[in-house]
Specification:
single chain, 166 residues, alpha+beta, 3-stranded antiparallel β-sheet, two-stranded antiparallel sheet, 7 helices
Amino acid sequence: ISQILALATANALDHQAKEVMRIEGYARYNDDGYMIHHSKKYLQRCLKYMKRIWNILHIKLNEKKTQIVKLTHGFKFLKARVYLTKTGKVIKKVGKKNIVRERRKLKKLRKKLDAGLIDWDHIKMQYQSWRSWTSNFNAFWTIQSMDKLYHQIYHDQLKMEKEAVV
């Protein structure tokens, strides 16, 4: 229900951005959002206007995270880095914290597997879930690197599984 409330509470923001300010490059999900426009001055005016609306809605803005930047520098949205290349291609990369967390998780799950606290199927499903989510990004080399670690940590399990199939 908190997700529904978060979306509904800030609905006025969405209408102001899209209908009043005519921002075509606008998106928001819960407390995370962005506005894209070719004019920095216009974005500065929009930000001042949006701050007034946030105050009316009693939404506290994180001043440190709220910035106006060039798209070529990239910005963070939903724990991903989004960049615009010189050719106009949009690149989405997985956040570094997510990669570090997954590496640590694979190592912790190995210890739990060895202790008999979880089964191999749970680990396979967890890793496949992370891998599928990561495939939505420009993350080919990240996935390759994580696959390598996965095979290093679980080589014995993978070998037994392969022998059982044959």
